[in-house]
Write a structure and sequence with these properties.
The protein folds into three domains: 115 residues, Nucleic acid-binding proteins (OB fold (Dihydrolipoamide Acetyltransferase, E2P)), CATH 2.40.50.140; 297 residues, Bira Bifunctional Protein, Domain 2 (BirA Bifunctional Protein, domain 2), CATH 3.30.930; 41 residues, no CATH class. It is built from 16 helices and 17 strands. Strands 7-11-12-17-16-15-14-13 form an eight-stranded mixed β-sheet, with helices on both faces. The chain has a five-stranded mixed barrel with strand order 2-3-4-6-5. It has a three-stranded antiparallel β-sheet with strand order 8-10-9, with no helix packed on it. A hairpin with a 3-residue loop joins strand 15 and strand 16. The longest helix has 23 residues. The structure holds 4-amino-1,4-dioxobutan-2-aminium adenosine-5'-monophosphate (4AD) and magnesium ion. The site of 4-amino-1,4-dioxobutan-2-aminium adenosine-5'-monophosphate has 21 residues, from strand 12, strand 16, strand 17 and helix 16.
């Protein structure tokens, strides 16, 4: 009775599904659930988007439907006897949206345990065959970036989205299980954590009007003095929303430290912004970073935490997203599963920056960039270490003080700091962290060394003035981790809406 009614209620389908009478007969289930062998014999409703439709000469159609709940589709068998078979079902093409009520049966076909014999097919939305951009398969990732609003409907981007979701879930579980407190650090900030100066400014000023004012006042000054003004046109940001210049954060670390220095173990996980003009397969202007910060942790504890977190993410993805991982292994990079399985079973190597430099210098390899002590490691060096020399993830520590930010703890040798970077094959650095400088005088000295004004970091220095504590933390770039897991070669393809120089349409 209810199933017959479903064919009549084409328009008010959703409302109809929620009437108690129907739910007794047909459960609304995901495609993932409908595909399970133990669903055979159930009356179900599945809802999703058509991937393909094939018509058999015997008077019925096969419709493959996907709803994002899993990699695979569910096959629908729609008989010609259905009342809307000619008028609607035979017009179904990739991208159309449908709701199907029917009986789950064991499938005789290969590659699927079940199929659904449709009792009713409701068409929510057609997709024009001529103009739907995903009509055919096999588009390049470059092309798909130009249709970021539709690419979640492809196999690859569905799989990336599920793996990304699983990784985020594991990150929270990992920290929550260890008693870390989730802290929300601000997106808008007045301080520059990395000291690199590549920040996006946030303003509520009408910049065009401000610039005009500045030019006019400069002209006025010039004619009064009858000479050329030395000062260029400037905008007075003390009149801006925050009475000072403000920026999008490059890291939540400094603010997370305030909570770690009060509540012990904390982490922050949010969007992070860098205005560097880096057009590489590993850089985004907006990316997501996980930043634990823990009181009483030294650099070794920090490394252990990073290694534990990465292994937890890898293990969970392998276990919880097997279909997606098989797809990446088949279509994107034939080594991803084996690599991850190997990593979760083995120790990450730990070697000092100085030892790494020695290895590079003695390698006999010709590098484009110099390998002298004191230089930052370049991608080619990181790749040599992880891909050629060690063939596994490596944690490098104790970097030269000149190439690392002010907040890292200075070692007794005076020339290195307690920094650590986790490097992995292909992607390079996925984690950057350190033990923090907890000694007030040394921290102030380091700020001056890097031309930073200690006064503007007065609140950060207060943490060292009042009950200072040894502490450590790191930042893990979510997208780099997803790249490593999936084998996707461009970071723009592992974030839903990539923000890179010249690209913010969607
Ligand atoms: O090494 P970074 O710059 O470290 C920090 O920001 C520290 N304040 C973190 C901390 O100690 N709490 O960045 C950390 C990680 C990198 O290892 C990398 O994985 C990622 O963030 N990352 C980027 N990912 C994508 N695009 C970019 N432009 C990135 N810059 C850094
Ligand atoms: Mg770094």
């Amino acid at each position: 009775m209810a199933l017959i009614a479903a064919t009549r209620y084409n328009r008010g389908f959703t409302r109809f599904l929620h009437s108690p009478r129907v739910e007794q007969v047909a459960d609304i289930v995901s495609v993932a659930e409908a595909r399970r062998a133990d669903s055979v014999g159930r009356e179900v409703v599945v809802q999703g988007w058509v991937r393909t439709r094939r018509d058999s000469k015997a008077g019925f159609s096969f419709i493959e439907v996907n709803d994002g709940s899993c990699f695979g589709n569910v096959q629908i068998i729609a008989e010609a006897a259905l009342p809307n078979y000619e008028s609607e079902i035979k017009r179904l093409s990739p991208g159309c949206c449908v709701g199907v009520t029917g009986l789950v049966k064991a499938s005789p076909g290969k590659g699927q345990a079940t199929e659904i014999q449709a009792a009713a097919v409701v068409v929510h939305g057609l997709a024009d065959v001529e103009s739907y951009p995903l009509q055919k398969k096999g588009h390049s990732f470059e092309f798909l970036r130009t249709i970021a609003h539709l690419r979640p409907r492809t196999n690859t981007f569905g799989a990336v989205a599920r793996v990304r979701n699983r990784a985020c879930n594991s990150i929270h579980q990992f920290f929550q299980e260890r008693g870390f407190l989730y802290v929300h650090t601000p997106i808008i900030t007045a301080s520059d954590c990395e000291g690199a100066g590549a920040m996006f400014q946030v303003t509520a000023l009408d910049l065009a009007a401000e610039a005009k004012k500045a030019v006019e006042s400069e002209k006025g000054e010039k004619s009064e003095k009858g000479e050329k003004s030395e000062k260029g046109p400037g905008i007075d940001f003390s009149k801006d929303f925050f009475n000072r210049p403000a920026y999008l954060t490059v890291s939540g670390q400094l603010e997370a430290e305030t909570f770690a220095c009060a509540l012990g173990k904390t982490y922050t996980f949010g969007p992070t912004f860098r205005a560097e003009n880096s057009n590489t397969p590993r850089h985004l202007a907006e990316f997501w970073m996980v930043e634990p910060e823990a009181a009483f942790f030294d650099l070794w504890d920090d490394m252990e935490l990073a290694e534990g977190l990465l292994k937890r993410i890898f293990r969970d993805v392998l276990q919880e997203c097997p279909e997606d991982m098989q797809f990446f292994n088949r279509r994107i990079d034939k080594t991803v599963i084996e690599t991850l399985e190997h990593i979760v079973e083995s120790e990450f190597l730990r070697i000092s920056y100085s030892d790494a430099i020695d290895i590079l210098r003695k390698s006999g390899q010709r590098f484009e960039f110099p390998t002298a002590w004191g230089n930052d490691l370049q991608v080619e060096h990181e790749r040599f270490l992880t891909e050629t020399h060690f063939r596994r993830p490596v944690i490098l520590y104790d970097y030269p003080r000149e190439i690392k930010p002010f907040y890292m703890r200075v070692n007794d040798d005076g020339r290195t700091v307690r920094a650590m970077d986790v490097l992995v094959p292909k992607v390079g650095e996925i984690v950057g962290g350190s033990q923090r400088e907890e000694r007030l005088d040394l921290l102030e000295q380091r700020m001056r060394e890097q031309d930073l004004d200690p006064e503007s970091y007065w609140w950060y220095l207060d943490l060292r003035r009042f009950g200072t504590v040894p502490h450590s933390g790191f930042g893990l770039g979510l997208e780099r981790v997803i790249q490593f897991i999936t084998g996707m070669s461009n970071i723009r393809d592992v974030i839903p809406f990539p923000r890179t120089p010249g690209n913010a349409e969607f």
